[in-house]
Specification:
Layout: E1 11-13, H1 21-27, E2 32-37, H2 39-44, H3 48-56, E3 60-64, H4 73-86, E4 90-95, H5 97-109, E5 135-139, E6 151-155, E7 160-164, E8 172-175, H6 185-204, H7 210-232, H8 237-257, H9 261-273, H10 277-292, H11 297-306
Parallel strand pairs: 1-8, 2-3, 2-4, 4-5, 5-8
Antiparallel strand pairs: 6-7
Helix pairs in contact: 4-5, 6-7, 6-8, 6-10, 7-8, 9-10
Length: 313
């Protein structure tokens, strides 16, 4: 059976990957850049690592920090209106999944008509017709995989919905584990479990194929072998690097193979009780895997082995 494999057009990965930022900004001949980011990153000075090189090159860079975890629809609506009004020519997303998802929305919908609600997957009545502004995504967590997917997730009253289209794929992703060092232990754990869930669900997916299997199993090996160290010793360069690579690979795996029961149940759980997506996945993962185990015994054993446990029998 054939399979369609889609990757982000260009990605830079590894310690120091942020050094390639200006190469990409210059490629788009950008003069006025919107940086969508988390207010905490501005406080920590991480936004300076992106904004200062732009300003030094004579490029107008404007921070937009009205980003919140699990962003509600109205947050997305405000950002899109802001982006349209200011007439930017490049959008950079810097942060966790919320900032990256919002940056994708801003980049695409800045040149479309209507509200964000008009493009929601379940209830929207409009379709995206073009790519919009160029987009560069720079994750500061190791978890969501948003930098390599075509999905933007928004919270509604008691559940979540998405805007999804290949036009939301970034033009470039920059995955630099050095940007994750300041991530608090709780967020490291929650986002790491999100990435691990991506890899596990991609591996047991009915749409899995040899390409996604390779990505998913290596992601499971890297995340399982490093998450405890990354949580307890955030400055450990090897652990942060393995988590960053693992999250990246898991994102590629689930984008092409899909996720299933855990994520389907995590959306309403997070929407109803306002807990993080990673924590929702952590609660649900053992129960969903236990439920499907009879039909996935061989693949469960592969996952167990990739996590470093000895197999018997």
């Amino acid at each position: 059976m054939s399979a369609k494999i889609t990757f982000t057009p260009l990605s830079y990965t590894g310690w120091g990957a942020l050094d390639h930022l200006m190469d990409e900004v210059e490629r788009f001949d950008a003069k006025k850049v919107l940086i969508v980011t988390d207010p905490l990153l501005e406080k920590l000075g991480i936004t300076d690592k992106v904004a200062e090189p732009l300003k030094a090159a004579g490029i107008q860079a404007e921070l937009y920090t009205e980003v919140v975890p699990e962003p509600p629809l109205e947050v997305g609506e405000r950002l899109v209106r802001f982006t349209r009004d200011r007439e930017f020519d490049l959008v950079i997303g810097l942060g966790g999944g919320s900032a990256l998802d919002l940056a994708k929305l801003a980049g695409v919908l800045a040149t479309h008509e209507g509200d964000v609600a008009d493009y929601l997957n379940l209830t929207g009545t409009r379709s995206l017709t073009h790519k919009g502004l160029p987009k560069i995504l720079i994750p500061t967590t190791s978890g969501t995989g948003s930098e390599v997917t075509n999905i933007a997730v928004l919270s509604l009253a008691t559940t979540k919905d998405v805007v999804t289209h290949d036009y939301l794929l970034p033009d470039a992703a920059i995955v630099d584990p050095a940007l994750t060092v300041s991530l608090p232990p709780k967020v490291t754990a929650a986002t790491g479990i999100d990435a691990l869930t991506h890899a596990i669900e991609a591996y047991v997916s009915v749409n899995a194929n040899p390409v996604t299997d390779g990505l998913a199993l290596q992601a499971i090996r890297l995340i399982s072998g490093s998450i405890r160290t990354a949580v307890s010793d955030g400055g450990n360069k090897e652990a942060r690097s393995d988590m960053s690579y693992g999250s990246f690979l898991a994102g590629l795996a689930f984008f092409n193979a899909g996720v299933a029961g855990v994520h389907a149940l995590a959306y309403p759980l997070g929407g109803q009780f306002h807990i993080s997506h990673g924590e929702s996945n952590a609660v649900l993962l053992p129960y969903v895997m236990g439920y499907i185990r009879p039909s996935s015994e061989k693949r469960m054993r592969d996952i167990y082995g990739a996590m470093g446990f000895a197999l018997s029998g």
